[in-house]
Design brief:
Blueprint (H helix, E strand, L loop, with lengths): L13 H26 L4 E5 L5 E5 L4 H50 L9 H76 L18 H20 L11
Antiparallel strand pairs: 1-2
Length: 246
């Protein structure tokens, strides 16, 4: 039969209470020692009896070093907790402020759009009207400036295009002039070559000399006379004078 569960409550019998305290105290001191040896842990155990009698165990040579170490770590942890709580509280306050500001801006936006105006008095309405007029004036000024900037950009682009067009026109004129010079040079060269190949071709177009067709008979007589003289010279090779000259 197993051991039943013991109810945890104060033992009324003084003797039994002292016996139970002694047994469990020794057990706790033994467990603390075993824990420090087996797990290489730094253990400090302090027990006060109902008569304020102290029982302690320390795995180190000095209990106070362990207590001071505990106090430093514990104090640092408390400081970190306090800082964390302060940051958390500060963040929550900032969140509430931002939320209120957001709601205020939303309400103002709706009022500028002409909504939720019933709760406003005459001064509030006049203030909204002045704000709208100021906004319209700023928008108009911004639009005018933007239009002037665009006009300036367009004028600059137009000037660039005009300059580029003038440069293209000048280049085109130079190309046309070069082509005309080249054509003239090629035409002259071809004429020179044609004249070298046919040197008598231009004689067909020149006027006739003094020996025209009207003097054909005279030329024939001269030619015939010259022929006869030559023949007589050939026949009278002895140097005698021909008979027709006597």
């Amino acid at each position: 039969m197993g051991r039943g569960k013991i109810e945890l409550k104060r033992i009324d019998n003084k003797i039994n209470r002292q016996v139970t305290f002694a047994k469990r105290r020794n057990g706790m001191l033994k467990k603390a020692y075993e824990l420090s040896v087996l797990c290489d842990a730094e253990v400090a155990l302090i027990i006060f009896s109902d008569r304020s009698k102290i029982y302690e165990f320390s795995s180190t040579s000095n209990m106070m070093e362990t207590i001071e170490k505990y106090q430093k770590i514990r104090y640092r942890s408390l400081q970190n907790n306090d800082l964390g709580m302060e940051k958390e509280q500060s963040g929550y306050v900032e969140y509430l402020q931002l939320k209120a500001r957001y709601q205020e801006l939303q309400q103002l936006q709706r009022q500028l759009l002409g909504e939720e105006l019933k709760s406003l008095n005459l001064d509030d309405l006049e203030a909204i009207e002045r704000q709208l007029q100021s906004s319209l004036k700023a928008i108009g000024s911004k639009r005018t400036k933007r239009m002037l900037d665009q006009l300036h950009d367009l004028q600059a682009k137009e000037k660039m295009m005009v300059d580029a067009n003038k440069a293209l026109e000048k280049k085109l004129e130079e190309i046309c002039a070069a082509n005309e010079v080249q054509k003239t040079w090629v035409s002259g060269e071809q004429s020179i070559r044609l004249g070298q190949k046919n040197p008598h071709s231009h004689g067909f177009f020149h006027p006739l000399d003094s020996n025209s067709n009207l003097q054909i008979g005279f030329n024939d007589l001269l030619s015939s006379g010259q022929t006869n003289v030559a023949a007589s010279d050939c026949r009278n090779g002895n140097g005698s004078v021909p008979v027709w000259m006597l």
